[in-house]
Specification:
The complex is a heterodimer of chains A (244) and B (302). With 244 residues, chain A is mainly α. Chain A is built from ten helices and two strands, in the order H-H-E-E-H-H-H-H-H-H-H-H. Chain A has one domain (2-240). In chain A, 75% of the residues lie in helices and 2% in strands. Chain B is α/β, with parallel strands linked by helices and 302 residues long. In chain B, 33% of the residues lie in helices and 30% in strands. Chain B contains eleven helices and 13 strands. Chain B has a six-stranded mixed sheet with strand order 5-6-7-3-8-9, sandwiched between helices. In chain B, strand 1 and strand 2 (16-27) form a beta hairpin. In chain B, helix 8 (213-220) packs across helix 11 (288-296). The longest helix of chain B has 16 residues, at 162-177. Chain B is elongated and about 75 Å long. At the A-B interface, helix 1 and helix 4 of A face helix 2, strand 5 and helix 3 of B.
Chain lengths: 244, 302
């Protein structure tokens, strides 16, 4: 436990020192929120979004950026790098376990997601009039399950990839799919309906986040699918993961 | 008193036999070398000793414990420096040592260790910015930070320049003098000859010789060559009559006498009796290199 605390401390320091990681995961979505929010039209209620503003409609997609970056981009790359460079192997020769390093990376990803969600909600509310999540419990559930599904996919990539390069090669498509169906590249109201429906079930499940943020409880099926993906991908990752 | 006992170790990966049959013991306080060509099974052997792999057959005992079953205890008492094990680029020297020190119940003082290993100036330097020699020293420091009784060092000086290599050797001797038993895996003859008290030569998964470096050389390749330029013409028979001499050759004005045992004394005595002065006299002994070739049938790497 002592070793885990020390590893978490150092890994957090390395994460912040890296600079690019917090910039992409936390600062980028926040900056996009500010850029869009400064355009008055995005704050006006719009019948196209059921009487909500574009910003309300788009905020969950900004959170998807953090989720996808942390869980399926940074996490597998860091783990694959540590394995390739023998960091995990070296830890295995000490009284500390390489599992502690894995756990520390998960805690950092969770922390990043939490910080980003809180900042997006708070800044959206205070600066741009985006209401707080109307169904807080549903929102928390959608965020937790969406995060779990994406983290499990990220771990699966880290488990399957033999090298850092392979991890990046596998992570990028997963990352882009999550971003695309999360409505980050193209706002979802511009997509054909069937793509939007696929997006409802694509981790991290942006529709569930949107429902809970702006309207009512998310649909159980949306949440259930995230839970199933989390369990299946997580189990596969646990089975396939190698320390060296 | 042996601190490591390896008996009939056998390990295969699928169809590939990495270690066929390896046995040796390491005594407390010595530097024990494991020498062999690349792919001979050296690393697998020490990985089994370090408890990173389970042997398929045979017995490994370290400090009287089983490296797999008693892994928790042994990790406190055995420091390991693995081949090609790196650290995160942005991790600083001081941070790395303090982190690894925090894993152990009774660690060495990280600050002292940093100074001892000549990294005092580099405390705040990130791993990425260290030279090869500095990275290696940090790696050794991490293997020692738990105050181990045994340190296993794999391919310690591969990729280092000659100066850094010599510095590292001096460091290893210092560590041994502080009472740590050292298992050194290497494919450098010079390193083995300079550092090891005893060594096992492993080839194709088997121990082909186990002795002190000098013992290995004299048992496997005992011949010595004496070269000199005689001050007056000499007859070959002067030397071939000596029991120690096996052959005499001439190249230009030089005489090359090959023999065993105390051949140098025999040759110089006979020259003195005949009042011949041997100019440019040179004695060539077999090296560990020669012994290695003799034992394994091929040249060492590099």
């Amino acid at each position: 436990m002592h070793a885990f605390g020390q590893i978490l401390k150092i890994e957090t320091r390395l994460y912040l020192r890296d600079f690019a990681a917090p910039l992409l995961t936390v600062a980028l979505p926040l900056a996009l929120l500010a850029v869009f929010g400064l355009i008055p039209a995005t704050r006006e209620p719009d019948p196209q979004f059921g009487g909500r503003s574009f910003l309300e409609y788009f905020a969950p997609s900004l959170l998807v950026i953090t989720l996808a970056m942390s869980a399926v981009n940074i996490l597998p790359t860091v783990l694959a790098t540590y394995r390739e460079r023998g960091v995990l192997r070296r830890l295995a020769t000490t009284p500390a376990s390489p599992a502690a390093l894995l756990a520390a990376q998960l805690v950092i990803a969770l922390g990043t997601i939490l910080v980003s969600a809180v900042l997006l909600i708070a800044v959206g509310r205070l600066a741009f009039g985006v209401p707080l999540p109307r169904h807080p419990l549903g929102f928390a559930l959608a965020l937790v399950l969406g995060t779990a599904a994406l983290l499990a996919l990220g771990l699966l990539v880290a488990a399957v990839a033999r090298t850092t390069k392979a991890a990046q090669g596998m992570a990028v498509p997963v990352f882009m799919v999550a971003m695309f169906f999360g409505g980050v590249y193209v706002p979802r109201f511009l997509l054909p309906d069937f793509l939007v429906r696929i997006g409802d079930y694509t981790p991290p499940g942006v529709q569930a986040l949107l429902d809970a943020w702006t309207a009512d409880a998310p649909q159980p099926l949306h949440l259930a699918i995230m839970a199933v993906i989390a369990v299946l991908a997580g189990a596969a990752a646990a089975k396939l993961f190698r320390w060296e | 008193m042996p601190v490591i006992e390896v008996t009939n170790l056998h390990k295969r990966y699928g169809d590939v036999v990495a270690v066929d049959d390896v046995s040796f013991t390491v005594e407390a306080g010595e530097i024990f070398g494991i020498l062999g060509p690349n792919g001979a099974g050296k690393t697998t052997t020490v990985e089994c000793v370090a408890g990173l792999r389970s042997p398929d057959r045979g017995r490994v005992s370290v400090l009287g414990l089983d490296p797999r079953r008693d892994a928790t205890q042994l990790r406190e008492r055995v420091g390991v420096q693995l081949q090609e094990s790196q650290l995160p680029d942005q991790l600083r020297v001081g941070e790395a040592l303090e982190l690894y020190a925090s894993f152990y119940r009774d660690p060495a003082d990280p600050g002292e260790l940093i100074d001892k290993l000549g990294l005092g100036e580099k405390r705040k330097t990130p791993y990425k910015k260290l030279s090869g020699g500095q990275k290696q020293r940090l790696s050794i420091a991490l293997a020692l930070v738990g105050n181990p009784e045994i340190a296993i060092l794999d391919e310690l000086t591969t990729g280092l320049d000659p100066q850094a290599r010599r510095d590292t050797w001096a460091l290893i001797e210092q560590v041994r003098d502080s009472g740590v038993t050292i298992v050194l895996v290497t494919h450098f003859m010079e390193e083995a000859e300079r550092l090891c008290d005893r060594l096992a030569v492993i080839d194709r998964g088997r121990v082909v010789a186990l002795d002190s470096p000098a013992g290995l050389v004299s048992s496997v390749a005992p011949e010595q060559r004496i070269r000199f330029r005689p001050s007056a013409p000499v007859d070959d028979r002067l030397f071939t009559d000596l029991p120690e001499v096996t052959s005499v050759q001439r190249t230009g004005g030089q005489v090359v006498v090959t023999g065993t045992g105390d051949v140098l004394h025999a040759v110089t005595s006979v020259l003195a009796r005949n009042q011949i002065i041997a100019a440019d006299l040179r004695l060539e002994q077999s090296t560990l290199d020669d012994a290695f070739v003799e034992l394994t049938g091929h040249r060492p790497a590099e």
